[in-house]
C-alpha cells in the first residue's frame, strides 16, 4: 500500500525529470561534439556556434631585432603604404559555407577553393607540418563572426605557413579563430628556415589585426597554435618609399629699385607611390603658392612667379603632400637668395662727409666754371 502511494506521488516528478533529461541530452551531446572537433569541417557540420569576443589592441611596438609590430591597420597602412591586399573574395564558397582544398593555396591553385590567378602572386598559404588534400579551408561569411571569406588550415592541430617569393619587408592581416587564446607568430628569413623573431597576437572570431615591418627580408611567417587560425585582407610586399623634392631659382638674383625677379619652382615625385594634395607654400612671396593636387610617380611640375623686392632676402618655399591612405606624405623645402641694391650715387670724395658742405662745394664748382667761361670769351674778344 505504501509502495503504491509512493509511486503515485512520485510519478509526476519522475516523468518531469525524464522530460528534462530528454531536452538536455541533445544539447550536451552537441557540446561534447563541439569540444571534440578536430577541424573546421567537423565544427561547422556539428552546428556548434562559435561566438568569440574581439581581442585587445595596442600601438606599434618595436623589437630589438629590427621589427615593428602593429595591431592597428590604419597605422600599419600609413607606415607601409601601397601594399597589395589579398582579400580571398574570389573563393568558391557562399555565406555560412565551408570548402576544403589541398595545400598550398597560391596563384597557381586549381581546385575547389580557387581557380588559377585568383590569388595574388608572390604569396603562398599552407598547413604545416604535412600539407594534405583537405589541409586548407575557406569559410564563407558569417561562420564565426567573419564578414567576408577567410582562409586557413582545416585541422586545428596544424600550424599555418605563409611563404613569400620574393621576400617582403612588411605584412599585415586580420586573424580569426574559434578561441581567444593568443597565438605565437614566428618570423623567418628569406631562406624560410632561419628564425629571426617570435611574437604573439590576440585573436578572435570577429578578427584582430596583426602586422609586421622589418629591416630584413621576410621569407616566411608561421602562426603556431592548436585553435584553427584563419586570415583575411592579407597585405604584403616591399614597403613603398614615398618621396618628394622641390627646387627654386631666382633670375636675376640681384635687383635695384623697381627691379623684378622671376622665381622658377620645380616639384617632383621622387618616390614609388602616387601623392595627393601636393601644395607649395611661399610665405615671403605668396604669389608663388600653388595647389598642385595629385602628383603621380616620377611626375614633375614647373612654374614661374615674380616679385619686386624692396630689400634683400632669402626666400624659403615648402612643399607638403598626402598619401592615398590619408596619412601625411613627405615634404621638402628649397630656398633662393635675392640681393637688393640702391641706385648708384655720385661721390664727392675729398670734400668731407658732412652733407652740409655739399652746397658750398657745388657753388665753388659753378663759380669756377662761370669765371673760366668768362675768361675764355674775353680772350676771344681781345684777340
Describe the structure in your own words:
The protein folds into two domains: 61-237, Sandwich (Jelly Rolls); 244-340, Immunoglobulin-like (Sandwich), CATH 2.60.40.10. The strands form four sheets. Strands 1, 2, 3, 5, 8, 9, 10, 11 and 12 form a nine-stranded antiparallel sheet that branches. The protein has a five-stranded mixed sheet with strand order 14-20-19-16-17, with no helix packed on it. The chain starts with a helix and ends with a helix. The model is unreliable at 1-7, 19-35 and 50-57 (pLDDT under 50). It has 383 residues and is an alpha+beta fold. It is built from four helices and 20 strands.
| Count of separate structural domains | 2
β-strand amount: 35-45%
Give the SSE order as H and E letters: HHEEHEEEEEEEEEEEEEEEEEEH
- Looking at the overall shape, the CATH architecture of the largest domain is Sandwich
Low-confidence stretches: 1-7, 19-35, 50-57
Number of separate helices: 4
Instruction: Indicate the structural class.
Output: alpha+beta
Would you give the CATH topology of the largest domain? Jelly Rolls
Radius of gyration: 40 Å
**Count of distinct strands:** 20
Helix content: 10-25%
Which term fits the overall shape? rod-shaped
Gap between N and C termini, in Å?
185 Å
Profile the largest sheet: 9 strands, antiparallel
The averaged pLDDT comes out at 83
- CATH top level of the largest domain is Mainly Beta
